[in-house]
Specification:
Blueprint: E1 10-15, E2 24-30, E3 34-42, E4 45-50, E5 64-73, E6 79-92, E7 99-101, E8 117-118, E9 120-123, E10 126-130
Antiparallel strand pairs: 1-10, 2-3, 3-4, 4-8, 5-6, 6-7, 9-10
The structure holds FE2/S2 (inorganic) cluster.
Cofactor: [2Fe-2S] cluster
Family: Belongs to the bacterial ring-hydroxylating dioxygenase ferredoxin component family.
Protein name: Rieske (2Fe-2S) protein
């Protein structure tokens, strides 16, 4: 049996300004097979994830972008209320609410639930994804 491995393709997908800070762009890329990729920019860095939720395959990258919600506790572990952590950026799957950290692709509360990553970079004002 022979297995053929196709070399990865670097695909120019957008201009840098199409993904502003705390923004997102979802693109369809077709090489050997079509794949939909969400590209996010947070703290100046780009991240790219397949637009397929680990829960039931929903379009996770197209959901709301929110800061992580944290609960503040007093020394006796009583709640002092909820607060947004602007140092963390999440995207929320629109189907059932799975939430992913855009810098890791991981759900913060469900071990093993994560988005499939793609290498992404930018050069001379263009964003490129390797698929
Ligand atoms: S498919 Fe994304 S939360 Fe269910």
């Amino acid at each position: 049996m022979t297995t053929t491995t196709k070399a990865p393709s670097v695909v120019d997908v957008a201009a840098s300004e199409d993904v502003p800070e705390r923004g997102r762009l979802v693109v369809e890329i077709t090489t050997t097979r079509p794949v939909t990729v969400g590209i996010f920019r947070f703290a100046g860095r780009l991240y790219a994830w397949e637009n397929v939720c680990a829960h039931q395959g929903g379009p996770a990258c197209q959901g709301r972008i929110v800061s992580r919600v944290r609960e503040r506790l007093d020394p006796e572990q009583r709640s002092l209320g909820l607060t947004f952590d602007d140092g963390t950026m999440h995207v929320v799957c629109p189907w059932h609410g799975y939430e992913y950290d855009v810098t890791t692709g991981r759900h913060p509360g469900v071990p093993g639930a994560s988005l499939r990553p793609f290498p992404v970079d930018e050069e001379e004002g263009r964003i490129r994804v390797t698929v």
